[in-house]
């Protein structure tokens, strides 16, 4: 077994380190001196440590090859719901500071989705969703509530189908929530929507990052609409704060606390912003604003905010405080990406891929195209089908396993991460399967810091129910299956190691 390939030692205090086992997702605690020897390799362990390690390996299935087989033999439908991203319109009323960097797809789709697409979408579901699989609609844009009529029609048709054939549907929307057309509260309540709201922090941050196209701030309108929705829908909706972090001040912790104090959100999602700077990687990006194209594609230098000096420290600081956010006085239930990672460790589960793009997740757009990824919409070379015909070409490039990748295949975090975002790879390297090193660094940091947080955490945090995470479309629907690790005898002596999960 090799350090950084088959296990990872992560010091988190002066006297104790976390030891994460790649194959089984077991998390151990070890005295610092033992962990230091383990970092040099298992052959450096003292004889009694080596005996305990080998015992653990036998009893817990440490170091087995089960995941490689599991990934190779898995069906596309394993581990995630079938999901259709419904790209309703390119129209958006905000002018977010970093919008141009989100893949440049805005401006390529020039119309709103018409009702004729609804039949195509339901035909697609009928042909592609595995029998008995739950189906999720992801309403997306532009600002999808600018085309609320089509959302309503899809929900009504889904309800009919659910009553006739028993298919279970989940509805989720990504919205800036500056618009709340008449009847939307009832629609969300009746169909138990998951409402993912783009909001980056308190008023100062939100108004600077996400102003209206007329230059006015958006914070007050959004909070007013959030309050209205929560009052009208109670617990029948799930509200998610979708935060993009792109400024050093206020800190990540302060931004989260500003929203947490509102006590309106059930979950948070926290994304690193990507924005232009004067150095680092060059990529061809067309500058667009809503439906207006501001420039032809040109080389723009961009950077992932989490890799800026001091931001990793902010992230670590936030994770130190993170377990304290769970309080009986607040409806907060977690940051989705962190909790999904924790779930894979506490319950013993393996990611079959980074996301469900090109597996069980497709985007239907107003121009009738079908894309494996919502961020690649409009780039015809990535289209894999059309509304009337369904899938028209195979796309194996979306289905390579993490084990087949020359870099990811030797990464200790491979069965947590699944191999990185293919669209971000394409932006950085021009190839879906050639790693975007910055995104990879971020994924590694996320895995390391969440493991440290878990290693420090109390039992009541580790034992929280995480049953809903299959429902919530975390990380573009990362497909996750149980890894079949053997339960350990709680009375067994593994000293100097302590098995945490
Ligand atoms: S993208 Fe990076 S973190 Fe993810 S599996 Fe590949 S090497 Fe590991
Ligand atoms: S994870 Fe990346 S490649 Fe996958 S669907 Fe999301 S944006 Fe697209």
Automatic annotation (TrEMBL):
InterPro entries in the cross-refs: 4Fe4S-binding_SPASM_dom, Aldolase_TIM, rSAM, rSAM_sf, Sulphatase_maturase_rSAM
Domain spans labelled Radical SAM core: 78-319
Pfam families the record matches: Radical_SAM
Keywords: Iron, Iron-sulfur, Metal-binding, S-adenosyl-L-methionine
CDD domains documented for this protein: Radical_SAM
Xref: Gene3D superfamilies: Aldolase class I
Cofactor(s) this protein requires: [4Fe-4S] cluster
Entry-linked NCBIfam families: rSAM_more_4Fe4S (TIGR04085)
Name this protein carries in UniProt: Thioether cross-link-forming SCIFF peptide maturase
UniProt source species: Streptomyces glaucosporus
Gene expressing this chain: scfB
């Amino acid at each position: 077994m090799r350090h950084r390939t088959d296990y990872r030692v992560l010091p988190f205090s002066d006297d104790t380190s976390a030891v994460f086992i790649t194959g089984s997702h077991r998390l151990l605690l070890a005295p610092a001196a033992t962990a230091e020897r383990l970092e040099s390799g298992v052959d450096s362990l003292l004889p009694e440590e080596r005996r305990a390690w080998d015992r653990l390996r036998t009893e817990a299935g440490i170091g087995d090859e089960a995941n490689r087989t599991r990934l190779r033999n898995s069906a596309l439908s394993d581990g995630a719901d079938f999901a259709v991203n419904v790209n309703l319109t390119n129209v958006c009323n905000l002018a977010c500071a970093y919008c141009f960097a989100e893949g440049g797809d805005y401006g390529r789709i020039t119309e709103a989705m018409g009702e004729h697409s609804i039949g195509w979408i339901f035909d697609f579901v009928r042909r592609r969703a595995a029998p008995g699989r739950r189906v999720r609609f992801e309403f997306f844009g532009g600002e999808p509530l600018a085309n609320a009529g089509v959302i309503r029609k899809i929900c009504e048709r889904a309800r009919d189908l659910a009553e006739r054939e028993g298919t279970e549907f989940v509805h989720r929307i990504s919205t800036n929530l500056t618009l709340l057309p008449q009847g939307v509260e009832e629609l969300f309540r009746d169909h138990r929507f998951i409402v993912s709201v783009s909001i980056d922090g308190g008023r100062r941050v939100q108004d600077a990052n996400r102003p209206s196209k007329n230059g006015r701030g958006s914070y007050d309108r959004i909070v007013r609409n959030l309050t209205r929705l929560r009052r009208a829908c109670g617990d029948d909706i799930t509200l998610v704060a979708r935060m993009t972090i792109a400024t050093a001040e206020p800190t990540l912790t302060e931004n989260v606390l500003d929203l947490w104090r509102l006590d309106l959100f059930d979950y948070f999602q926290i994304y690193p912003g990507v924005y232009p700077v004067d150095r680092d990687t060059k990529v061809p990006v067309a500058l667009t604003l809503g439906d207006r194209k501001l420039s032809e594609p040109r080389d723009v230098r961009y950077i992932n905010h989490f890799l800026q000096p001091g931001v990793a420290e902010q992230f670590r600081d936030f994770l130190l405080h993170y377990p304290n956010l769970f309080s009986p006085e607040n409806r907060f239930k977690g940051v989705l990406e962190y909790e999904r990672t924790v779930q894979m460790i506490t319950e013993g589960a393996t990611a079959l891929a980074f996301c469900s793009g090109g597996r069980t997740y497709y985007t239907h757009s107003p121009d009738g195209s079908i894309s494996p990824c919502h961020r690649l919409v409009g780039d015809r070379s990535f289209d894999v089908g059309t509304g009337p015909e369904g899938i028209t070409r195979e796309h194996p490039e979306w289905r390579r396993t993490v084990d087949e990748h020359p870099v990811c295949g030797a990464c200790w975090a491979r069965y947590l991460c699944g191999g990185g975002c293919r669209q971000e790879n394409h932006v950085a390297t021009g190839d879906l399967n050639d790693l975007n090193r910055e995104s990879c660094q971020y994924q590694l940091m996320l895995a390391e810091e969440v493991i440290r947080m878990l290693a420090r955490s109390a039992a009541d945090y580790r034992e929280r129910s995480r049953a809903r995470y299959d429902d919530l479309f975390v990380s573009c629907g990362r497909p996750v299956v149980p890894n079949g690790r053997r339960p350990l005898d709680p009375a067994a002596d593994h000293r100097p190691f302590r098995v945490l999960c």
